[in-house]
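stuck on this one:
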Amino acid sequence: MFNEKSNYKIQTENLLNIFREVFRPSEIYVPTFTYSFTKKLFFNIKSTPSEVGRFSEEIRLIYQKKCYRIFDPVFSLIETENGLFKEEDINNNAFGKQSVWSYLNNQQHYYVVNINLDSPIIATQLHYLEYENKVQYRYMKYFNGSVQNWDNVKSNVKYGYYVRNIKINPTWNRKKILKICQDQKFVLESGPVKFFEWFKLSKFLKKKLSLNSNYLIT
């Protein structure tokens, strides 16, 4: 949309400020994921760019000096307000107890925000529920690689990731999940923006998954 990087930076900061003024959040988490770690087997928390969109990459660059990027070679995020996780060591299990997803899953006033996305719902937290409920169409796979921290110190890491079984090739029924959110009033929709009330949605889906581990893909 913008030809000059400075313009996009301004728009990125303006969008953040709108969220701050309207919702007064204690924290905002912006994904800066790097799925390429599973192939390149290297992640530099300072310089490895985000692979999930221009907005995400602008946020990474804006907050680079504050060191607010969560140290996870695949599922890093930027904490724009307080940097609760900034002192944490490398997370070596994508959805384990030390992951940001485990922390967020227990926050009662946490919303997943989708802006101008074609898919009915985008939420990495659904993967956390799959991991927590040990769905059969995914399995734990380990990647032996290396990472570089804020102090430029390199170290080896064995990273656990609950990946999908390609033979089964599961696909979320996103339309069903969105319909559930609408029926149960777990989502607020305003034009191209959706706000999913994650704590309530998580409890609902966890109960369903305990009865049918394939609930998200049927």
Summary: The chain has a mean pLDDT of 95. Residues 5-217 form one domain. The first strand starts at residue 29 and ends at 31.
